[in-house]
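Continuing the series of single-chain predictions for the mutant panel. This is the parent chain; the variants come on the following pages.
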Amino acid sequence: MARHGGQEKAAKSLRLPRTTFESRVRVAQRLGMKPSQGVEDPQNAAHLRARVKRLETELKAANDTALDHEAIKRKIIGLRDGAENAEIPNWVIRPHGPDSAPGVPTLFVSDLHWGEVVHPTQIGGVNSYNLEIAHQRMDALAETAVHLLRIISPKMDYSGIVIPLGGDMVSGGIHPELAESDEKHIMPTVLDLFGKLASFLKFMADTFGNVMVPCVTGNHGRNTLKIYAKDRHHTSFDWLLYCFLAKHFEADKRLTFHIPDGPDAYYRVYNHRYLLTHGDKLGSGGDGMIGALGPIIRGDHKKRSRNAQIDMAYDTLICGHWHQLIQLQRLIVNGSLKGMDEYAYSNNFPFERPRQALWITHQRHGITFSSPVNVERKREKEFKTAWASVPAKEAA
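Parent structure:
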């Protein structure tokens, strides 16, 4: 300032507003900084070289410590190859055998809400859920899916299986009531689910030979107050879980993971194009008697319009989030593993059994066989009527 004759001229020489200059002087004084013999000329070559060197040092330090998604995958988790742009394996897109071959099955796994507790006494005794039951239902999911697919093809003539992981894998404690009532905190819950999914996927690889796993994040696994639009996946324990699984199976070439950086995963089975998304951004609310189908169809229509404009058209949208199994040609909505809970019961939502979606994509006919996979272990209610019967005519 002495060199330039006051703060105003000093600020002008540095091309700074005077208020900015004064603010920086006050901060310097508060930090105990003292002025040097004079202010270096910003156009001086030695000054510029020193400044460039300082900036290069700061940039290197920032690069070394930045925890972006590449750093997490490569440096922390140790993934060698990025799963965000995984190439679809040949067994998924090339015809396998004659038209009599059944096709490629898809078992949709989403909305596990691992760690959440559902108290039967609070919902009329129609359901119960905790970690022990969740483990049992995952076992039932694997066994029942294989049983149903063996009915279609006793020889199990499948080239592999697609297992989309559709988000809301953990409860997440995102609301105060969940934070208080979840069985475990989020990190031990993620570790528990990792072990179960690892054994589940290994069983599927041993049974079907090949497994492709497209993955998207849900809204429950987040570690933020509200779901992010930017870096949604980097604030989600779902994404972290998927990366751990991809690392775990990195040496097992039977499994292929597709973990995109965005909220949607685009892939195809033969020539049938799928778009996997969690479903929380399709809409909200419901429409009278048709319930969630209204906002879901509207959301699908918007996605189709957007994707058509960017040359990413798809044939079938698959999503979770709504806990209501809907299996159509253009739209597949998954159920949940936990089934009816206190929220659904208190809001008078229709009763929905805990179940997941299963279907087959044929190389020529597209989606053919579709079935729910019910995961309740308890025995169904026995009816006294015969397995097929005709009501008796009333007496005249």
